[in-house]
Amino acid sequence: MSPNASRQTTVLVVGAGPTGLLLASELNRRGVPCELIDAQPAPLHWDRATVVHPRSLQIFESMGLVEKFLTAGCRQRFVKIHSDGELLGTIDLAGCGSIYGFNVGISEETTESILTGSLHQHGGQVNRSSRLVGLTINSDHRVVADIERDGHPYQMEARWVVGCDGLHSATRKLGGIGFEGHEMLKPWAVFDASVEPWADTFEAIMAYLEPFPVVLTAIPGHRWRVYLRPSSEDSDLVAEAASTLRAYIPSAAFVNVENPARFRCHTMIATSYRSGPVFLAGDAAHLCSPGQGHGMNCGLQDAFNLAWKLALVHQGAAHETLLDSYEIERRPAAAIVMKSGDDYEDSTALTDPTERKARDQAIKSALADQEISHHDMVAETELNIEYAHSPIVFGDANSSFAAGYRLPDNIPVQLPQAATANLHALGHHAGSTLMLLGGPTADPSALLALHAALQKHVRDSPLFETAVALTAGAHEPDSIGRLEPAAAAQLGIDGTTLLAIRPDGYVGLRADRDHLAALDRYGAFLQTGHS
Ligand SMILES: Cc1cc2nc3c(=O)[nH]c(=O)nc-3n(C[C@H](O)[C@H](O)[C@H](O)COP(=O)(O)OP(=O)(O)OC[C@H]3O[C@@H](n4cnc5c(N)ncnc54)[C@H](O)[C@@H]3O)c2cc1C
Hints:
Layout: E1 7-14, H1 18-29, E2 34-37, E3 51-52, H2 54-62, H3 66-72, E4 74-76, E5 78-83, E6 86-92, E7 103-105, H4 108-121, E8 126-127, E9 130-137, E10 143-149, E11 152-163, H5 170-174, E12 179-183, E13 188-196, E14 204-208, E15 214-219, E16 223-228, H6 237-245, E17 253-263, E18 266-270, E19 274-275, E20 278-280, E21 286-287, H7 295-314, H8 324-348, H9 353-368, H10 370-380, E22 394-395, E23 412-414, E24 420-422, E25 432-438, H11 444-460, E26 464-471, E27 481-483, H12 485-490, E28 496-501, E29 507-511, H13 515-528
Parallel strand pairs: 1-2, 1-11, 2-8, 5-14, 11-20, 22-29, 25-26, 26-27
Antiparallel strand pairs: 3-7, 4-7, 5-6, 9-10, 10-11, 12-18, 13-16, 13-17, 14-15, 15-16, 18-21, 19-20, 23-24, 23-27, 25-28, 28-29
Bound molecules: flavin-adenine dinucleotide.
Flavin-adenine dinucleotide binds at residues 14-20, 37-40, 48-51, 108, 131-132, 164-166, 170, 190, 263, 282-283, 290, 293-297, 299.
């Protein structure tokens, strides 16, 4: 321990926004010693993210929190896009391929409060009024953080520091990591209000792509968070938004207006997500247009990706190189939403009437084309993120469902004691799950024997938490669960397939043959860092 360090931990998480709270909660759940600090004396009341995407709802389900979000928030099932006085088309998220066929509209303050509850439940807490001001790496390659608590300095020594400290991340700057990108030329503004009269659905995001664009996102209580591009620095935000809306609802008025604010946006990405023992996640690592509601959702996924990896390395169950996969998997995901956000900003900023007409026609055609519309919907919900090219996923190629893809959440299964469940929920564990799946031609006795071998493997290996078996073929219902033949076909399974499901729901290994040998190779890779 360094001479001035007064406290020690394994992971110091800097910043108790949604990203840091989720990370600290997941680390605590896995018993990883962790300290979470935040410079603010209390949670921020300036509310930002309202749109929680289906992928984040899946994460909250896995953490046992989804019911809280569904109860506290409101559903945004439809995205209705308007321009030039007409409805260009509607995206119905019910078709996105998830049991969560909607976004949840909920204030970021409530999201943080639910995540704080989860952190407390797992024995953690937020150390407030504690600002990171310095970082050094000592001779043991550990980080010594200088922290000021209510003006009093102290030091914290940690094996790893994760900067979840937002746009102006001190962790990023002190860690010597660059931040590249650009500021968006035109500012945005926001306020909360009710609209009267309102005859349309409240389960929606309504986009009006007029020269001064306005986006209404549903929040609880039949209210809307209203985003707009104001015409000048001191324009009347409510009057400007109303003038756009009146092209569609002539008598529309915003009433009970709250919290008007103007803000500037950036498209930025950290040059690296890791520098030695220093990691970045959330807004500290990437910023994008708020227009598509990806910022917080992307940060939640960062934290969910990193937590189980830090835990396995801390426990000595996996080699340190596992941590390199965090940037490899998550940085491209941020690049996708940044590009999509820039395209969105460019498209809403068009003023030339001919260009606007061409844009509107392109949106109309895209929404009318089922394939394009579905592709866009899956991107909007962040269900398109996959890690097929990650160096830590392995296995037999399959055109239907391969390693690096996320287990779908809409496959019902029957468990041995006749209980029904959803296949993906069988992987909701702090550790990885071995899932043995039989297709129509699976040999029932071989399946049973393999299942028994996997259960023994789980007892002997710290990498896996449990083993389950299901089949669409002939079987002994008391010991093996039932998978529908259509589900086996959806997953490209004919004989017997072994999947190793990572704690974040992605497939780490797919083995269609030589299952135990493939599993040994996979485990050896995670433990040694080479194959
Ligand atoms: C108007 C608006 C609307 C948005 N809407 C959406 C949306 O609908 N959906 C969506 O996904 N995203 C949205 N976003 C983006 C979203 O708000 C952010 O992506 C999200 O808040 C990032 O969370 P975070 O935890 O990474 O960082 P933050 O929420 O910024 O948290 C960082 C924390 O770090 C603390 N901190 C900073 N410096 C230090 C230090 N030196 N020491 C200790 N603590 C420190 C801060 O006090 C803060 O609590 C929106 C953004 C804006 C501006």
